[in-house]
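In response to reviewer comment 3 from the previous cycle, which asked for concrete evidence that the modeling workflow produces usable outputs, we include below a single protein chain processed end to end. The sequence was submitted unchanged, and the resulting structure tokens are shown without manual editing.
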Amino acid sequence: MTRLTKLDNDEYRWLADDDDCYHYGEYTSKGGFRASDTNQQIWNLKNKPTAGKGALYSKGKAVEYWGNVLANCLELEYVNQFCTLIPMPWSKPTTHADYDDRMLQVLRSIARRKPSLDIRPLIIQTETRESQHLGTRLTPTELRETLAINRSLLNTPIKPHVLVFDDVITMGSSYNAIQS
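The workflow returned the following structure tokens.
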């Protein structure tokens, strides 16, 4: 089984000592797509929905790549029984032309191996904001102001453990906002 690596929370400004965050692969900031296979797959995953056919083909391949990686890292029987999986929302609301549900697509890719997984986009982006990696990085409090809970997805109780999936962690601000 492929392994996830637990983050050293001291290296991430917004993570508390008791936060359990894991990652797969090392993303080299400002390294471009040639820096590593991880960078290449993240770059492809981040292709906008309005991109050309070739970029969207590469995005689809990246969705499957990350779905396979995560499916091989997770104990799917345990996750199926005890966990609700939540994709990190993107910086655009669903009504925006550049809305990107890439993490939901990755989770659905995992679910092709275990269709009964509890996957819910419980956290939604309520207003357009700049992506964290492109501009001024928002604090968790500022990010929370742009997020809401999709209460229509709470008719069925969530499971005892909630797993949040994001494509990159830089300072932990998004994680902190979602957690609270």
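The first strand starts at residue 5 and ends at 6. We consider this sufficient to address the reviewer's concern, and the full set will be provided in the supplementary archive.
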